[in-house]
Amino acid sequence: MEMNEMNELYEISARRVRNVSTKYIRYLYTAIDWENRLISLRGARGTGKTTLILQRLKKAFPNTQQALYLSLDHLWLKTHPVYDAIETHVQHGGTHVFLDEVHYQEDWAKLIKSIYDDFPMLHIVYTGSSLLKIQQAQADLSRRQAEYDLPGLSFREYLEMEGIGHFQPVSLEDMLKNHVEYAMRITEEISILKYFHTYLGSGYYPFYREVHSGYEERIQQVINQILESDYPSVENVSYGTIQKMKKMLMILSESAPQTPNMSGLYRELETDRNQGLKMLKVLSEAKLLALLSSESASLKNMSRPEKIYCDNPNIMYALCPDAETGCIRETFFLNQMRSAGFKVTYPQNGDFLVEGKDLFEVGGKGKTFAQIRDLPDSHLAVDDTEIGQGHRIPLWMAGMLY
User: Fold this and answer.
1) What is the pLDDT of residue 172?
2) Do the Cβ atoms of 336 and 330 come closer than 8 Å?
3) Which of 19, 31, 127, 164 is positioned for an S-S bond with 159, CB 3.0–4.6 A?
4) Phi first, then psi: what are they for 159, rounded to 5°?
5) Where are the beta strands (DSSP E) in 270-313?
6) Rounded to whole angstroms, what are the CA distances from 402 to 31, 156, 305?
7) Which long-range contacts link 328-334 to residues 24+ away (Cβ below 8 Å)?
8) Which pLDDT tens digit goes with each residue over 122-180?
């Protein structure tokens, strides 16, 4: 490929980098070892992966063509091979390439492997919004790449992005043992509950700042993009199956957190158990649903999880504007714990078991220990509470873990 054919790509890359803001940079930016030759950045659609890599270009490669940003769903790449464009980039001094939306490239894993092997001096960062396909392809790349996951904004990050306050993340151990001291420091500066309830409705996805009153509609658009565009790009799926998945998502979001009769659900969707479980798994992998199972259960062989939630409260509000407060609270707690990297399972008593040890019951200000009394390592995560006491921990503090 001639260098003059690349001019359009360099112009697009420069424009995208120039227009990205570096006023707020997500926590993951400093956690990534950018010196690795191959970096995989995964996460749900809308969590800010593109922004993060554009910020990296802006900070590390100002005013240079040494690094190139390529979105693999761009029309230019429909008629020009990605490999040829990267080869030309390297031949003219390029040292870094940032590949966005790799799941739109057929046989993307083979492409990444070829680029990695053929250009040993090239650094590659790639993103993909479909967790399902990237996980399936790890066998080819896992020994070569450094892998990172980007969840949506934590409540702590939301406070930073809004300019309300800058607070250090709290560890799970400190949250359990020193939550009173931590909460007192924060509540001396801000009225935490006011911002917390705003976050529950519209603070998880960074694009909330762009759309304002159209936030719920934007979330619904994201859901449609995932099911109508992302998923078909990684697996041969029929239009009818996509429509069934949309219906499944709506039915389950309206019944959350109680799991409906799955056999009845499969009949209503006119599908069988195996296909129904597959659809359920895809909705979970896409971060639209969160499946909660016991320690001993596994998605591979179970007929149903113990509970099914929307992935986060913002999706819950977008799909069910009249969602119950109790469900919103539990959804928030589960989402923030898992986003912070903790294993959460369904216990015999209480709502959530974290890391196989710490038992949590989630509720409002009047919640008591009646359901988990005398159980070891048990805690209440209570809403409408600025500062807790003992094993009564403010619910909002689960949002300060990352």
Assistant:
1) 98
2) no
3) 164
4) -60, -40
5) 289-292, 307-310
6) 11, 7, 27
7) 328/200, 329/362, 329/363, 329/364, 329/381, 329/383, 329/395, 330/257, 330/362, 331/256, 331/257, 331/290, 332/200, 332/395, 332/398, 332/399, 333/360, 333/362, 333/381, 333/395, 333/398, 334/290, 334/292, 334/309
8) 999 999 875 545 555 555 687 889 999 999 999 999 999 999 999 999 999 999 999 99
Q: Is the pTM of this model over 0.90?
A: yes
User: What does the alpha-carbon distance between residue 117 and residue 397 come to, in Å, rounded to a whole number?
Assistant: 45
Burial class (CB within 10 angstroms; exposed 0-12, middle 13-18, buried 19+) of 9: buried
Q: How far from 2 is each of 6, 11, 218, CA to CA, in Å?
A: 7, 16, 40
Residue with the two structure tokens 């693999």: 72
Buried b (16+ CB within 10 A) or exposed e, 30-49: eebeeebbbbbbbbbbbbbb
Name the pLDDT band for 302 (thresholds 50, 70, 90): low
> Domains, the chain, ranges and CATH?
3-149 (3.40.50.300), 157-400 (no CATH)
Distance, in Å, from the CA atom of 57 to the CA atom of 42, rounded to the nearest integer, reads 18
Q: How far is CA 329 from the centre of its chain?
A: 18
Q: Which amino acid is at 363?
A: G
Distance of CA 118 to CAs 86, 107, 123, 142, 275, Å? 11, 17, 12, 18, 40
| DSSP state for residue 194 in the 8-state scheme | H
Q: How far apart are CA 126 and CA 50, in angstroms?
A: 10
DSSP letter string over 148-184? EE-----HHHHHHHTTS---PPPPHHHHHHSHHHHHH
- pLDDT one-digit tens code per residue, 24-62: 999 999 999 999 999 999 999 999 999 999 999 999 998
Continuous segment of H or E residues that includes residue 353? strand 352-354
DSSP 304-346: --SEEEESSHHHHHHH-TT--HHHHHHHHHHHHHHHTT--EEB
Q: Which helix (H) or strand (E) holds 269?
A: none
